[in-house]
Write a structure and sequence with these properties.
Layout: H1 10-18, H2 45-51, E1 66-72, H3 81-86, E2 91-98, E3 102-103, H4 107-116, E4 120-126, H5 134-146, E5 158-160, H6 175-193, E6 198-201, H7 203-210, E7 222-225, E8 243-247, E9 255-260, H8 263-271
Parallel strand pairs: 1-2, 2-4, 4-5, 5-6, 6-7, 7-8
Antiparallel strand pairs: 1-9, 2-3, 8-9
Helix pairs in contact: 5-6
Length: 272
């Protein structure tokens, strides 16, 4: 599928943060990190590339015990949120940041607009374990739109950990080092917001790059990517998924998701 690229003070904050990166070049304090193409990277962009799409979207997407939603990034540009709501979307995750030097130009419109249309929304961070620590990236994420507030309409921030778009799938890290990096991000995010972040990943990447760690199943909700008729095997430690990203196109802009529970359970996730 081809894609294209408030809260009070959010727009100004995002604009200011976006000045950290222009044309894909990071700040001098961060070193020569290349963020070109970051606007087109979205949750699952590398998973689809590495793992492919298998079968048709699940027939039970709109079952009584699930809630339909989607996720977007700068690749979608400005979204018609009223149309998304009319089509049945009830929640959305929106890409805010990547590494410690990129903020999506579309974040303010998407985050504020989805809230205005009545969707429950949250922000996600595209992890770059090769450029800085988990703590540094969690801090950058929270400071640039990825925080959480107990307003009943905001999902906890999500950490998108998937294949490296620049090279080695695991960013040159051993399994134990990757687990430590994710734990560093998760711990810092929770210290800043009071909530553990959702972890977005695929089972295959998790097995390959964390050694199928079971360290996060009791603390972090799972947002699993698998483009198939069935969700299949989950990463170790999680007895169930919270959100399933089951297709990279469909009824709503961006990727298609299904929350594993009814609307009251989705609301509970917003309040902790």
């Amino acid at each position: 599928m081809k894609r294209r690229g408030a809260l009070a003070g959010l727009g100004a904050m995002v604009v200011a943060a976006s000045s950290l990166v222009h044309g894909g070049v990071a700040t001098a304090s961060q070193g020569p990190v290349d963020y070109r193409g970051a606007e087109s990277r979205y949750a699952g962009s590398q998973i689809a590339k590495h793992e492919g799409v298998h079968g048709s979207p699940p027939a039970h997407t709109y079952a009584a015990n699930t809630v339909p939603g989607h996720d977007v990034s700068g690749w979608q540009g400005d979204v018609d949120w009223q149309a998304s709501a009319r089509a049945g979307a009830e929640f959305v995750y929106i890409k805010a940041t990547e590494g410690t030097g990129f903020v999506s130009d579309s974040f303010a419109q998407q985050y504020t607009g989805s809230h205005g249309a009545g969707l429950i929304r949250g922000a996600y961070h595209f992890a770059r374990p090769d450029v800085s620590s988990g703590a540094a990236q969690a801090t950058f994420f929270v400071d640039n739109g990825g925080g959480w507030t107990a307003d009943g309409r905001t999902l906890p921030g999500a950490l998108d950990v998937e294949y490296n778009p620049y090279g080695d799938a695991c960013y040159g890290k051993s399994a134990s080092d990757m687990v430590d990096w994710i734990a560093d991000f998760s711990r810092t995010y929770q210290e800043r917001t009071g909530r553990a972040p959702v972890i977005y990943t695929s089972t295959s990447w998790w097995e390959k790059c964390t050694g199928n760690s079971s360290a996060f199943g009791r603390t972090n909700p799972l947002w699993l990517a698998r483009y198939a008729e069935r969700i299949g095997e989950l990463p170790a430690g999680w007895p169930a998924h919270t959100i399933w990203q089951y297709a990279d196109s469909g009824t709503f802009p961006g990727d298609q998701n299904s929350f594993n529970g009814n609307r009251s359970r989705l609301s509970a996730l917003t309040t902790g």
